[in-house]
Amino acid sequence: MRLTYTSDLWYKNAVIYCLDVETYKDGNGDGVGDFRGLTQQIDYLHSLGITCLWLMPFFPTPNKDDGYDITDFYSIDPRLGTLGDFVEFMRTAKDRGIRVIADLVVNHTSDQHPWFKESRSSKDSPLRDWYVWSDKPEPDDPSQIVFPDKENSIWQLDKKTGQYYLHSFYRHQPDLNVANPEVRDEIARVLGFWMELGLSGFRVDAVPFLIENVGDKLPDPHAFLADLRAFMSRREGGAVLLGEVNMPYKDLVSYFGDGNGDQLTMCFDFIGMQRAWLAFARSEAGPISQTLGDRPKPPKDCQWATFLRNHDELTLDKLTDEERQEVFDAFGPDKDMQIYGRGLRRRLPAMFGGDLRRIKMAYSLLFSMPGTPVIFYGEEIGMGDNLDEEGRMAVRTPMQWSQSGGFSDAPPVRGIPGGSFAPERVNVADQKRDPDSLLRWFQLLIERYRECPELAWGDNTVLETGHPSVFAHRCDADGATVVAVHNLSDIAAEIDLALEGLDGCVLTDLLADETMEVADGTVRLPMSPHGCRWLRAAPRGDMPPEDASIIAH
Ligand code: NOJ
């Protein structure tokens, strides 16, 4: 495998780090994170090894949905800085080789957006058709209500004109009508604007809602995604659309553009994520093997984005009721930890009771899975949640830089976790000095992941381990092979792995100082409780595997 591929198709083995400017680092002492603060932390992100930042919405907003309710797509929320600060940030990130993508939230706007104010002013408004209006909407299907704690319909009567407007999310977030060509043009203009300022693409919010709300008003709603992708690629060949599409695999593939791969460049693997949590709850490999077994291969040049947690609830909506209950019982038994009847508002380390071995194994598994890993700020130091914060905000607390918090000198925008996840116990400064810390583990995983591009996009095969708790898979590309083995349980195990075509090879454990040989086509592997191994295969007597990982492809 040629290393040059990994620069053209940079996103296929990128390491994406999601953060909210508001909660990352306060640069002006007002208790709210901002672009100046974030810019000062770029070297931290660079030393962590991440290659792409995903910024959550940073646009002007009444902030009723943490910025996912936008009033101006062409500007910066004044609490977070100015366009000048943004450009300085972009320049610094670029200097450190870090790409930046941002949330593209165009399924809806805030109801305070001037477009909506104009649209709702009269049935004859020139912008009336920019939103979705109806005299008498269809009765609601309860499964369509995304936030059942706050809403009981996706239609809201607007008294002034006597019509209802569609809102797939909160009632203060009216859906844009992308069947209207002027709206589609405006969305393209938004993309073009931020690309001129250096963005390498977008995380596209709520994609199925975006194209489904046009119903039968467009002959092919997916053509809108293809048009958007084509527009973006004309402007910048390497730019990407990373889509939020939480759907069964069979329905999801069409969002890549079926066989053509001309719509979303990447899609989050929500199904794989949910099955990983089922596997953790059971300490069993089965659900993960199932993912690799039935997850479709993305079309050429497309990629899966893998993750364990994000800024939203840990949604378990695609598990059966019984499976979801298993995960609730294991990781969120209290009602207060659960949300919307389908998810958990917790961070992973808290769910694992702070068990460092288990936490390290989970992230090792994430980075070894075929796809591009996406991590949420604070995961790299094992931040916990703050259940005193409302709803999903429990996992969006300020980044913990030092024992005193280090986020801001002023009272922070959101409450900081206490107890065993308080900044005194969990912070960047301490973990930088500790060779066994989670932060150091992430640095190692990222370095190794980048050295092994076959993990991200090679051909992968699930291997028989003969042990229900041990998951093993191999990734092959152009004659290079990496084998990854993970023990999901807290009991040690020993497994025999048959490794076809690797007889006589030396396996170097890239996460530990150890080598072993494949004899008669098999290798015996002791696995410690929650142990993990990434094994690079090289013919005996070949060049040192460390170098082989880069050059031998
Ligand atoms: C998905 C985002 O991830 C979520 O945080 C937001 O509330 C909804 N879309 C609405 O924009």
Unreliable residue stretches: 547-553
Shape: globular
Q: Would you count the extended β strands for me?
A: 22
C-alpha-based Rg, rounded: 24 Å
What about the largest sheet? 8 strands, parallel, barrel
Fraction of helical residues = 25-40%
Global structural class: alpha/beta
What is the strand content? 15-25%
Total helix count?
Answer: 19
Give the termini separation. 4 Å
The set of bound ligands, ions and cofactors reads: 1-deoxynojirimycin
Mean pLDDT: 95
Strand arrangement across the biggest beta sheet: 1-2-3-7-8-9-10-14
Which descriptors would you attach to this protein?
alpha/beta, 31% helix, disordered C terminus, binds 1-deoxynojirimycin, SupH-like_C, Alpha-amylase family protein, GH13_cat_dom, O16G_dom_2
